[in-house]
Write a structure and sequence with these properties.
Elements: H1 3-19, E1 35-39, H2 64-73, E2 77-82, H3 84-87, H4 97-112, E3 116-121, E4 126-131, E5 134-139, E6 143-144, E7 147-148, H5 152-166, E8 172-176, H6 189-202, E9 208-212, H7 222-226, E10 238-244, H8 258-264, H9 271-286, E11 290-295, H10 301-317, E12 320-326, H11 348-355
Parallel strand pairs: 1-2, 1-12, 2-3, 3-8, 8-9, 9-10, 10-11, 11-12
Antiparallel strand pairs: 4-5, 6-7
Helix pairs in contact: 2-4, 5-6, 9-10, 10-11
């Protein structure tokens, strides 16, 4: 085989891997990636089904202006976290109409300004309820106080109800099945996530489904935490979701200074790209699609360089990504990219994000 022909075959194989999986054809063009932000607020504060909190007191929706601002910048993909207990106060029961309306606002505003949302059930594979007078976080499918409190069928039910509300909505890009499953005990996240995807597809819904990995979805050491691929999708429209933070314990708290982190890791500038490589390599190895749902840094210029190098690697991989986080109710949160001074002052992290738009000319 000639060098030119070998190179052509190698390029075609790369297209297959990045375009979405084994069903893609080598002749298909590369899938353009998306860049955006998490728009936080509806998931704020702990909640149980009996004490969900009140809008405007313990949790907050955002306004259309946030969507207009980021879409105008070119960051037109919005991951919207929300809580299961607030959405569905009784398992397998009806959705709360007021809370559902707050979620729908995000999809409507995104569509109005040329963007789309990822609907992110932000519950860590748990549902909180009161048991024997105490708030208790119950893992899906696990035995708690003598019985299974949250069935896999309950998880499937909430997603079928969401599908009924959002199927075909022009402002919806994807369903994020569950944020950061972890410490599942006797429960199998692989079984649970497959069941939810099956329920969505049986509902006649072909929307992109994002399946976060176990162990908080951490991109670093992804294969060791998750093993091989597990999702089978008749619609072939899913992606595995990873998260990536670059402090020493990958928590995103950034409790140590940059200098302290550098003393522990002289290659700190490359840490984000290095962690991402674990996930990208796994996706390429298995011919599956990946999505980066969360990543973020403090505004220190040295951390911004880590972000820049990470995004360069994400660009090369052709993966979608949403920065953590935006939202109007952070009150000084160090990773926030929500603008200050009535939307006139950009945050330092924003300039780095804008360097990595898929088509910078599209930012207005």
């Amino acid at each position: 085989m000639s060098n030119a022909l070998a190179a052509a075959f190698a390029f075609a194989a790369l297209v297959v891997l990045l375009a979405g999986g084994p069903a893609a054809r080598a002749a298909d063009p590369p899938r353009p990636y998306r860049r955006g932000v998490n728009v936080a607020g509806l998931e704020f504060a702990h909640s149980t089904n009996e004490d969900p909190g009140r809008h405007g007191t313990r949790y907050w929706g955002n306004s259309e202006r946030t969507y207009e601002y980021f879409a105008r910048k070119g960051l037109d993909l919005f991951r919207v976290p929300f809580l299961w207990e607030r959405l569905q106060p009784r398992l397998s029961g009806p959705l709360d109409e007021d809370y559902l309306k707050l979620i729908k606002n995000n999809a409507d505003w995104a569509a109005k300004h040329g963007g789309q949302v990822v609907l992110d059930l932000h519950n860590y594979a748990r549902y909180s309820m009161v048991i024997d007078g105490k708030p208790t976080s119950c893992v899906i499918g696990a035995t708690v106080a003598g019985k299974v409190r949250v069935r896999v069928e309950d998880f499937c039910d909430v997603w079928v109800r969401l599908s009924n509300e959002f199927k075909g909505h022009p402002g919806v890009y994807a369903y994020g099945l569950m944020n950061e499953p972890h410490d599942m005990g006797e429960s199998s996240w692989k079984t649970i996530s497959q069941a939810a995807l099956d329920a969505i597809r049986k509902n006649g819904d072909r929307t992109l489904v994002l399946v976060c990995g176990d162990c908080w979805g951490n991109a670093q050491g992804w294969e060791q935490k998750n093993g091989g691929p597990w999702i089978h999708d008749p619609a072939n429209n899913f992606a595995y979701e990873a998260h990536s933070y670059w402090d020493h314990n990958t928590s995103g708290a950034y409790q140590k200074s940059y200098d302290e982190e550098l003393a522990r890791d002289p290659q700190l500038r490359e840490r984000g790209a290095r962690h991402l490589a674990d996930f990208v390599g796994w996706c390429r190895k298995h011919g599956v699609r990946g999505f980066l749902g969360e990543y973020g840094v403090p505004p220190d210029p040295r951390w911004l360089e880590v972000l820049d190098r990470f995004l360069a690697a994400l660009d090369e991989a052709g993966m979608d990504g949403t920065y953590w986080a935006a939202g109007e109710w952070w009150w000084g949160y160090f990773m926030s990219v929500q603008p200050d001074e009535n939307y006139t002052k950009d945050k330092p992290q924003l300039a780095v994000l804008l360097k990595h738009l898929p088509n910078r000319a599209s930012a207005r």
